[in-house]
Design brief:
The protein has 39 helices and no strands. The chain is an all-alpha fold.
Amino acid sequence: MTLLDRFRAHPRQKHSDPVVRLAFVQEIPIDERDVLAEIAREDADARVRRAAVAKLMDPPALAAVAASDADEGVRDEALTMLRDIALDAFEGLAESESLAAVEALSDTKTLAAVAKTALREEVALRALGRVGDGHTLGSIARHARLEPIRLAALAALRDRAEILGVALNSEFKDTAVAAVERLGERVELEQVAARGKNKSAGKRARGLLRERDERAAAQAAGHQPQAAPSDLANLSEPARLDDDERVPRLEAEQRAETEQRAEEDARLQEARRAQMEAAQADAVRKREQTQALERQPLLEQAEHKRERDAERRRGRLAELLQEAEAAAADHDLVAARRRLSIVGLEWKDLTTVAGIDGDVAERHAAAEARLAAREMEAQAQETRTRQEALARLTHLAGRVEALAAKADLTLKAGERALRDIRSALGGLPPLLYKHEVVHTLKTAQSALMPKVQELRDAADWQRWANLGLQEKLCAKMEALGAINDPPEVARQIRELQQQWRQASDVPRVQGEELWRRFKAAHDVAWARLEAHFAAEAAARAENLSRKTVLCEQAEALADSSNWIQAAEEIKRLQAEWKSVGGATHGQEKVIWERFRTACDRFFTRRHADLTERKKTWAANLAKKDALCAQVEALADSTDWDATAASIKRLQAEWKTIGPVKKTRSEAIWQRFRGACDRFFTRYAHRHELARGERVTAREALCAELESLAPAESAVASPDAIDRSDVRPDVASGSGGAEDLVTKVRGLRARWGQESAERGVDRERAAALDQRFAAAFTRVIAGSPGAFTGTDLDPDANRKRMDILVRRMEELAGSLGGATGAIGDAALSALSPTTRLAAMLRDALAANTIGGKVDDDSRMRAAAEEVREAQASWARVGPVPDDVRRTLSDRFARACRRITETVGGAGQRGGAGGGTTGKAGKAGR
């Protein structure tokens, strides 16, 4: 085959290759019935015929193929298509086509399947009408989907064994009960009552048995004679219908049963009359007895004959059982079902006459079950095949729809899409012929065909254009003989070869001639390049040697663990490799794989090591991040010593952690160090911070108290306050006044606690004290009625302070004379309570010591009075500043005079004045 032969297309309809013909069949639409029928009848390859049959929707043609084709697979496919058409397996199929398919069917099994499973009653009745086999009719009566079909099949049955089988095995109530009504033998009714699958049928059989027993009991009670055996046989015989008569409804059978019972009653009456006549003839009975004795040997012979018949039946059943088991194991399911059906007919005849062994019956049932399981598996496989085909068709439909919409469709893609569509439609399962995806594929096919034809026409024109291009390439190849530059000639030869391949699609006759011309010029030019190619081969061999050396160096570095230096060296080798030219043909790929393997081994090891190091870095980073979080949580703590110890411990733990990634190392360290520095900076200034916190706390108390005070312009002098202007709610001590007093007391208590704390410089503390006192004064002045009668009442506090001042001044005046003359005068200057306490102490001392109260006792009493006065002074509430200053100066001077007087008396008393000295110290 020449180069141009590869680009020529051959007709595929009559192609010698069956694969090409098969592809052609798959591309034919299913509506071209004549072409498909012709291929199905005449093609030599069975696969092609079978593919055509799978797309053929013509029942007569399918029937002809099913009857005459030499290949069993093709025949089976034709029967399958006829069955699917009859069962309306394709969407949109008319009823007339289903009926035509039924008429075309001749296989009893297929007709039975149609009668059982068809959803159209007319189609099922047509299929039933073409079935004459009793066993098949029984199967239809037991399993048909439609009730009229089941009843019609039962009405057509004449085989009593089949009728009994319907009564025993049918799961449909209507059919089973109708079959029971047609049973006449008692043993048959007993079987249905005991083993019937349908409960209604068993119930009806038991009812019929009860009716018969009641009639027999009535006959026995009336001493009426029994009917003759021949008459009883006639009575049990169901009324026979003509072969052409069909009773499709249960009501007709019931009417026939009623007529039969009437006839039975008439026969019973006739039998009774005959029995009475026989009783009158005693001689006749004796003669009959004598004849019975003479017939005894004949009865024995009949018994032997029955035994021989039973033995023959058992042997025949064994043979039929072997045939049934062989049929169940047949690979061909159709042939297996046919063989088992033939066996089943004779099997039922033999088992109806007499019972069979249970093991034999089980083996026969197991053979039928195995075949049924195989048939179910085949149906499941067929369903899976159709589902897979639908999935492929859906995928193909999406692809070809997108392809048909493309503006830049190529001829190759279009032809491939058409081939795929034809192939998919050719191998389409029958049930998918009317599916929506098939319509989509046909629509895409219709859209692609004109585009592909247009591209084919353009390709034809391109072939003629390629002729001129090939002539130019031939001229250029012939002109290479005048060029003396071998590398240039070799380059141009390769370019011309590439251009020739691009323009290779030309008409066959002209193309062969141009190809010979081009090849001849090519051979002449190529012969002149032998020396050049020899030099190139030597250079490539040298390059191969250099690359081999580079491979050895790379392999020596592949197992190195000096990652940085080895990596740089391998990169240098790679750069040198790029500078080396091509190696010997055939060795280039091998030497490159060797070099790349060595490099990859090193960099793979380095990558694995880097991965492990990254894991270690990540673990270390996580640990350091946790330490940073801990230090940041402690950075603002005020528990200085414990926090400092904890942070130092964390710093020591930081040093034990390994390195982290270089790009993260500085950032995580700055974070850790910044948190540590923040705490230790605060730690170095902790005293200033404490003072600032105390100052802030006092300022907050001042601000809170100031918020309770009115504006300064609204506050009058304490001495000028008019009590009548106080609000009634405040003056009466209502809830608002009580809240104000409670708040002010709380603020004074908190101020006292804060003032007790050290750490605030004196000037700042004095300023804050003045601010708090000023705010307190404004609050009192703003709501004087609220504080009336409380410990915060300025007027009452001023009075208490004035009393304390006068008391101390009187005491100091009484102590101003000589020490020995202060007894009575000093006591008279004391307060009544203090004077009483002093007198009690003196009396106690006199009783204890036995002497009069001396001057030391009086001095101690005066010192005690000063201490109590100072304590009372400290408990006095607020008063205006100017008043407080005046009274405080007077109180201090009086206390100082008393203290000095008590201290001087103690010094004069010598050793006996120790107690007075202690009192003076307490007064100070």
